[in-house]
Amino acid sequence: MQRHPSPPAARSPGMTKAKRLRKLIGKGCLPMPGVPNASMARQVERAGFDAVYISGAGMANSTAGVPDIGLLTLTEVAQLAGYIAKAVKIPAVVDADTGFGGLENVARTICEFEKLGLAGCHIEDQEFPKRCGHLTGKSIIDLDEMVAKIEAAVAARRDPDFLIIARTDARSVEDFDLTLGRARHYVEAGADVIFPEALQNAEEFRDFAKQIDAPLMANMTEFGKSPLLSFAELTELGYKIVIFPQSAFRVTMKASEKFFRELRNSGSQKEWLDQMQTRRELYELLDYDPAAESWEGYRDS
User: Fold this and answer.
1) For this structure, is 175 an active site residue?
2) Is 299 an active-site residue?
């Protein structure tokens, strides 16, 4: 069974995933579908995307069955994110919540993620325990504390290409101008990318891009505070990364909800066979040949 070819950006010899990621965002805007697990990450790669986003909410919701309120530890997130980074050749960026503690914890987070082969992470300026970025009731830490966290993250990385993304949740707490001010300080502290969470309309996305002289990440999560702008619209505004963190998870959950209900009522899954991924399709996704002497997936990653 032949391995499905990886996207061109993933086959560049002698280039780390972090360097590939920087090269990609240097060329233009990069769409990053979000995934909660490694199998979905493989699907993202097979669909032809050049990078994948590892959703913190997705890991919490799908793996632990808990809300996105900072309940997963660094150890748990690192293990789950490491599976994903190992399973694909494309760069992966992971949600690091608030950095899992103080400055020393932030530094350790960066070191752990680098060792696992991740290409970058984002750290937010919420107080712990955090909340989903599109919910009310959030609190943010002092500006100086977040600046110190960014500086600690930058100082801790060993690979200068590892992407440090500073997420600000200030727009849900402060006005737009104060949010811009925070972002400028984060750039000065060394953040490679700024992630303004929960901007409230298309004009704010436009004005943020005009005012901040740094690569920007946009979050196109559904059912939140931000309008769902298209990838083309955000590219035109000058954004460099667009994430779709929970889209695939939501589609999957809605489908499985319907399936379980119908299975309970009918007692058979036969009517769903044409909507299922077949055994052969799963094995192809996993690069697994049952007839082979051994599985070489990790050797080829």
Assistant:
1) no
2) no
Active-site residue, 97 included: yes
Tens digits of residue pLDDT in 98-124: 999 999 999 999 999 999 999 999 999
| Active site (annotated) includes residue 213 | no
For 133, residues 6+ apart whose C-beta sits below 8 A from its C-beta are 124, 167, 169, 172, 197, 198, 219, 221, 224
Question: Alpha-carbon distance 248 to 246, whole Å?
Answer: 6
Q: Is 265 a catalytic residue?
A: no
pTM of the model: 0.92
Please say if 4 is a catalytic residue. no
- Give yes or no for a contact between 171 and 197, defined as CB atoms under 8 angstroms apart: yes
217 close to 197: Cβ distance less than 8 angstroms? no
Catalytic residue among 50, 68, 192, 287: 68
How far is residue 181's CA from residue 64's CA, in Å, rounded to a whole number? 36
Q: Could you confirm whether 219 is annotated as catalytic?
A: yes
pLDDT tens, 8-57? Answer: 444 555 789 999 999 999 999 999 999 999 999 999 999 999 999 999 99
Residue 37 catalytic? no
- 45, 169, 197, 204: the catalytic one is 197
Q: What share of the chain is helix, strand, coil (3-state, %, to 5)?
A: 45, 15, 40
